Amino acid sequence: MIDIAAIKEVCFDVVGAIYNVKNELGPGLNEKIYQEGLAIELALQKIDYEREKVIHPIYRGQAMNSTFVLDFYCKNSVIVELKSVSELNKEHRAQLFNYMHLVKPKAGILVNFAPLYAEIERYYYDHETDQVINSQGKFIRNRYDDNVTVHRIK
Q: Is 113 helix (H, G, I), strand (E, B) or coil?
């Protein structure tokens, strides 16, 4: 069984860096501004990360030419996907869930910096069941599931 508490510990300083960026830059800026701010903050905190990491999906053991790009891959175990939109929607979550199914990280964090209070959604990857779960330990039944809990940063 997946140990959500242990994985939250892995994510703790990454989420702290996200808080710092939101507090410093405020709401409503372009996504690229937040991405650059988070890169600076992760470096200042000496958190291992890769920005705009290119991934080639694997099909039957063979890397495909197709690619997708993660905004951040932190600590070799946490995908961070940034948005600056009026509201997170199913497509934003589906993007993160697809990345998680392909990369199989310990966790995925979806962040929306646009609102007054940033929205942060955390998800975890259960390697035993090959499924994404939410913070309450419930399986995301499909990639467009609305079974989420939103945390707002003040």
A: coil
Q: What is the pTM of this model?
A: 0.89
The Cβ-side half-sphere exposure at 42, using a 13 Å CA radius, reads 23
25 falls within a domain? yes
Residue 154 lies in a domain: no
In whole angstroms, give the CA distance from residue 128 to residue 120: 25
Residue 153 domain flag: no
Give Cβ neighbours of residue 63 (< 8 Å, ≥ 6 apart): 56, 57
Model confidence pLDDT, tens digit, residues 119-145: 999 999 998 888 999 888 888 765 555
Neighbours of 132 (CB within 10 A): 24
Q: Which helix (DSSP H) or strand (DSSP E) does residue 21 occupy?
A: helix 4-25
Count of the separate structural domains present in the chain: 1
C-alpha span between 124 and 34 (Å, rounded): 23
